[in-house]
């Protein structure tokens, strides 16, 4: 969809210069032999509950490194680099795994769940992850990626949702251009049905795959497959989520909240335990107050930014993402914002899902067909058409910044459409064949070791080390303070937290809103 001329005319250069972005980057901690590190979160990294830059995602072994909000890709990447440098100095001989698909995994029940201390909020985070383990399996949670948080001043919730609808329609382009997970260690799919082909012993792959992380092997379940969440507006989106957060799900009811031994299985028996369990390629977001439910924050104060969630780690880049990729995302998101964005329908939502899975598993297959409305079109043709339509957005960003950086990033993307052998997913398979005898583990381990050496060799001043060390110490004190203030029994806390009224709308009021979805 092209950007209408009036939308271009209304573009305010100051708004474009006001675009802000931040990165959240996940990486497994791995041992030198390519196995998952089963050690606790390093004490030198502070508290995973309260540290502003360094936490864990699903597993105790899965680091999540978080930047602040930045006006340029360069300053964002500079902060991400410093966080990496400090983190590596706390890891000893352990590595940060550079691939989105995990290292060698132990038995499912051995993968450690994140631990966040003895406070009610810390316990709730661990119980939530225990619920994820029962619902999806622990292996599925060890996949890592990069989240790109993006905002532009002057946007209301309606415009953010228009952006989100177009993003979902065209997300296959990002999977194609930046997918970097066409292969996996066979330990990841042990005991699971899959369509992967054997490349060699211990390594499975899809010959034309782009992002196995975003395909059927990723964060999927029968329960979530039953959701058809609409993005036609905040009211309908919130009603869809509230329904999933308050609707009992038979399989989870059978599991129960607490097991006979008194240990918690999950936070709730509803289809979703909390909002973050709903997986999407992009999310509307709002910074929350302490203890506030994200859905309540959205309803009360509207969308503040969007979180792009489909990026694989780039294993060839030390911090997993580079500036041209971030600029391409700026162009992509700006185009999605400015182009016409008709309402979605259940039929289109299902079609988007099929296109995503097809691109993830077969994206580089010559002549691959995707569904576009009532017809089919090759992925390559559709992607080329879209990237031509992105040109006005790139030109507007360059004009606002007095540069050619965004047009250069777009041209680099256009070149990849014309030369699929240069796509990251193709480069992964080529490097595996050339240097690692087609072994995924050896490939990812080799690049993880090289990345560690590169990051450790870069200058890192005593002042920088001291600043991060102080943040770690402060985070540990903050966790102790939270634990000391707790007075409510955990079960009371859990019941209060999941209470429907804390979502900002009574369940009785949800039905009319759902009727319009």
From TrEMBL:
EC code: 6.3.2.2
UniProt keyword ATP-binding present: yes
GO molecular-function terms, A-Z: ATP binding; glutamate-cysteine ligase activity; metal ion binding
InterPro entries in the record: Gln_synth/guanido_kin_cat_dom, Glu_cys_ligase, Glut_cys_ligase
Domain Glutamate--cysteine ligase, residue spans: 14-358
Pathway membership, UniProt: Sulfur metabolism; glutathione biosynthesis; glutathione from L-cysteine and L-glutamate: step 1/2
Keywords carried by this UniProt record: ATP-binding, Glutathione biosynthesis, Ligase, Nucleotide-binding
Chemical reaction(s) catalysed: L-cysteine + L-glutamate + ATP = gamma-L-glutamyl-L-cysteine + ADP + phosphate + H(+)
GO CC annotations on file: cytosol
Enzyme class, UniProt record, top EC level: ligase
GO BP, sorted A to Z: glutathione biosynthetic process
Stored NCBIfam families: glu_cys_ligase (TIGR01434)
Family the entry assigns: Belongs to the glutamate--cysteine ligase type 1 family. Type 1 subfamily.
Protein name from the UniProt record: Glutamate--cysteine ligase
């Amino acid at each position: 969809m092209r950007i209408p001329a009036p939308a271009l005319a209304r573009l305010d250069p100051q708004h474009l210069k006001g675009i802000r972005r931040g990165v959240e980057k996940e990486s497994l901690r791995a041992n030198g032999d390519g196995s998952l590190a089963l050690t606790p979160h390093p004490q030198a990294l502070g508290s995973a509950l309260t540290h502003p830059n360094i936490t864990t995602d699903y597993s105790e072994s899965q680091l999540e490194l978080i930047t602040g909000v930045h006006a340029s890709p360069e300053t964002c990447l500079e902060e991400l680099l410093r966080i990496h440098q400090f983190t590596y100095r706390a890891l000893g001989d352990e590595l940060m795994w550079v691939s989105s698909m995990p290292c060698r995994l132990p038995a499912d029940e051995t993968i450690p769940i994140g631990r966040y201390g003895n406070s009610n909020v810390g316990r709730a985070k661990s119980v939530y992850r225990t619920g994820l383990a029962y619902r999806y399996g622990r292996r599925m949670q060890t996949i890592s990626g990069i989240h790109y948080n993006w905002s532009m001043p002057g946007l209301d919730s309606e415009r953010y949702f228009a952006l989100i609808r177009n993003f979902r329609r065209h997300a296959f382009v990002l999977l194609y251009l930046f997918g970097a997970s066409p292969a996996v260690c066979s330990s990841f799919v042990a005991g699971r049905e899959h369509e992967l082909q054997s490349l060699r012993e211990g390594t499975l792959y899809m010959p034309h795959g782009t992002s196995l992380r975003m395909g059927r092997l990723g964060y999927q379940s029968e329960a979530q497959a039953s959701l058809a969440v609409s993005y036609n507006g905040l009211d309908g989106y919130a009603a869809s989520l509230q329904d999933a957060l308050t609707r009992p799900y038979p399989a989870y009811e059978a599991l129960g909240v607490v097991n006979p031994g008194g240990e918690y299985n999950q936070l709730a028996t509803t289809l979703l335990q909390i909002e973050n369990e709903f997986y999407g390629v992009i999310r509307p977001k709002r910074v929350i107050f302490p203890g506030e439910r994200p859905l309540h924050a959205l309803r009360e104060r509207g969308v503040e930014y969007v979180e792009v969630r489909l990026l694989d780690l780039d294993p060839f880049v030390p911090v997993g993402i580079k500036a041209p990729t971030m600029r391409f995302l700026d162009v992509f998101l700006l185009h999605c914002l400015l182009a016409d964005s008709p309402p979605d329908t259940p039929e289109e939502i299902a079609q988007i899902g099929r296109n995503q899975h097809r691109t993830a598993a077969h994206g580089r297959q010559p002549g691959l067909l995707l569904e576009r409305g009532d017809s089919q079109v090759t992925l390559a043709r559709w992607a080329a058409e879209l990237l031509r339509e992105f040109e006005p957005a790139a030109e507007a960003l360059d004009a606002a910044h007095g540069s050619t950086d965004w047009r250069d990033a777009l041209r680099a993307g256009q070149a990849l459409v014309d030369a699929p052998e240069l796509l990251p997913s193709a480069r992964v398979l080529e490097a595996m064949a050339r240097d690692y005898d087609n072994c995924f583990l050896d490939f990812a381990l080799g690049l993880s070791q090289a990345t560690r050496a590169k990051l450790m060799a870069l200058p890192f001043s005593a002042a920088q080390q001291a600043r991060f060390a102080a943040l770690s110490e402060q985070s540990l004190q903050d966790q102790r303070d939270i634990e000391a203030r707790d007075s409510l029994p955990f079960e009371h806390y859990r019941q209060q937290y999941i209470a429907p009224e804390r979502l900002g709308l009574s369940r009785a009021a949800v039905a009319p809103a759902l009727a319009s979805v």
